[in-house]
Amino acid sequence: MKHKVAVTINGRKHEHEVEARLLLVHYLRDVVGLTGTHIGCDTSQCGACTIHVDGKAIKSCTMFAVQADGRNLTTIEGLAKEGKLHPIQQAFWDEHGLQCGYCTPGFIMAAAYLLEQNPNPTEDEIRRGLEGNLCRCTGYVNIVKSVQSAAKVMGGASTTAGRSAVTAGGE
After folding, report:
1. How is 3-55 classified by DSSP, letter by letter?
2. How far is the C-alpha of 147 from the C-alpha of 150, rounded, in Å?
3. DSSP run (H or E) holding 142
4. Each residue of 4-46: pLDDT tens digit?
5. What pLDDT, on the 0 to 100 scale, is given for residue 4?
6. 70 Cβ partners below 8 Å, 6+ apart?
7. Phi/psi at 4 (nearest 5 deg)?
8. What is the pLDDT of residue 51?
9. Mean pLDDT across the chain, nearest whole number?
10. pLDDT by residue (tens digit) across 115-135?
């Protein structure tokens, strides 16, 4: 039996009839054609499928498409505006926060959510905020640097040293 799903994805309305068991990640990729959201494990371990649902970061392999009915979704394709990369996307490019790039969309979406919740995270807060995402190619140093750089561009300071100096100075 098929169910009607009506969602807004990256500001655009979509309506389709889908099987009840269709995972949201497969809906995005196979039905809607937005292939930037990657499938890394189907067990919610890697975070490559992270998107935003009503502004909250979720792993789209943990949700059925029918559960998204009536909701607002943002995928990696929805971050760039008017052909200009989002500051987080640009920071990943500038700071070499990717290697093969397979996990990158999920990291960027998780980082976008993190910076929305905390525009000035410490290094530890960044690492905790991204802990649901795995990279199999690189260490996480440049990924953390990418988030710190994006935070600066987006208005937060995001430097542990800067916070420590203020705290240590008693200001």
Report:
1. EEEEEEETTEEEEEEEETT-BHHHIIIIII--TTS--S-SSSSS-TTEEEETT
2. 5
3. helix 141-153
4. 999 999 999 999 999 999 999 999 999 999 999 999 997 899 9
5. 98
6. 6, 7
7. -80, 135
8. 98
9. 91
10. 999 999 999 999 999 999 999
pLDDT of residue 53: 98
Best CA proximity match to 51, nearest among 39, 41, 4, 70 = 39
The two three-digit tokens of residue 20, written as one number: 């009840």
Q: Taking phi first (over 0 means left), then psi (-120 to 50 degrees means alpha), and beta for anything else, what does residue 50 get?
A: beta
Element (H, E) at 125: helix 123-129
The span from the CA of 153 to the CA of 87, in Å, is 7
Domains and CATH numbers, the chain: 2-78 (3.10.20.30), 87-163 (1.10.150.120)
* b/e sequence 92-123, b meaning 16+ C-beta within 10 Å: beebebbeeebbbbbbbbbbbbbbeeeebbbb
State the Cα–Cα distance between residues 4 and 66, nearest whole angstrom.
8
- For residue range 70-124, list pLDDT tens digits in order: 999 999 999 999 999 999 999 999 999 999 999 999 999 999 999 999 999 999 9
Q: What pLDDT band is residue 170 in, cutting at 50, 70 and 90? A: very low
